[in-house]
């Protein structure tokens, strides 16, 4: 079995900022890893990038976030990549700083994404209290008051965001079959706490550990999202393998991207 493939979902012709993500993806990862594009059937992609393969799926998967969530929760998607032990999802708001992909594959984890960090707690008592509360909220799927939406506390300091994420392909494929009823529930709810990455990071492990997922203190070396200052604090100002949603924090990333040759 081959080790890992990079999967780039493309919905439409890339914008200027999305093209920066794509440039960096090929610059850093293409020498050692195959890079696949996944796209809607209807998109005639006019690209100069040397994708190893371009795979089309039903247009409905690419129309909105709900459609994309369904794709990332489908056996159809993971079944297309069963030749690879891992896939790296690389959305066009991701950016990699260095090729550590094999290093992360060797950690023997099943899922890794940017952790959902919170800002530093004011004191140890508050940190411990929220850690215990988070465990209880995840274990018993506590909802926001008067809603059916899981609390934000369930995601606090958990791993993590799916936009730049490493996934063990065969296991994910198997779990799409095993959790069909729960996946249907997630697919019918548009709230952010029902996004596909919440399913993989929280829902699958709610009753017992099924997916091996690193702690946020480990995963922060894989990828940053927000808050960036807290992430840098955790890594002692070391850049991670990559970052996600950098386009929403241009002021923070501008001087760093400049060092990599990009003007944002």
Automatic annotation (TrEMBL):
Query: Which organism is the protein's source?
Result: Pedobacter miscanthi
Q: DUF5672 domain: which residues?
A: 54-244
Protein's name in the database: DUF5672 domain-containing protein
Query: Record's Pfam families?
Result: DUF5672
Q: Which InterPro entries match?
A: DUF5672 (IPR043729)
């Amino acid at each position: 079995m081959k080790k890992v493939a990079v999967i780039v979902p493309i919905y439409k012709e890339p914008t200027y900022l999305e093209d920066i993500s794509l440039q960096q993806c090929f610059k850093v990862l293409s020498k050692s890893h195959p890079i696949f594009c996944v796209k809607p059937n209807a998109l005639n992609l006019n690209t100069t990038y040397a994708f190893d393969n371009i795979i089309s799926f039903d247009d409905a998967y690419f129309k909105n976030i709900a459609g994309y969530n369904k794709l990332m929760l489908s056996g159809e998607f993971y079944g297309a990549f069963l030749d690879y032990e891992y896939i790296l999802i690389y959305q066009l708001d991701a950016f990699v700083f260095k090729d550590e992909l094999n290093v992360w594959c060797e950690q023997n984890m099943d899922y890794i994404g940017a952790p959902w960090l919170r800002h530093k707690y004011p004191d140890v008592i508050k940190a411990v209290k929220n850690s215990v509360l988070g465990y209880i909220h995840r274990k018993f799927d506590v909802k926001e008051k008067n809603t059916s939406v899981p609390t934000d506390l369930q995601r606090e300091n958990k791993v993590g965001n799916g936009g730049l994420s490493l996934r063990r392909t065969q296991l994910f494929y198997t779990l799409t079959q095993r959790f069909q009823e729960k996946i249907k529930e997630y697919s019918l709810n548009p709230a952010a706490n029902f996004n596909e990455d919440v399913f993989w990071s929280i829902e699958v492990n709610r009753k017992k550990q099924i997916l091996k997922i690193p702690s946020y203190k480990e995963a922060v070396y894989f990828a940053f999202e927000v808050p960036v200052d807290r992430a840098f604090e955790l890594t002692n100002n070391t850049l991670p393998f990559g970052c996600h949603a950098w386009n929403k924090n241009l002021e923070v990333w501008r001087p760093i991207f400049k060092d990599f040759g990009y003007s944002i």
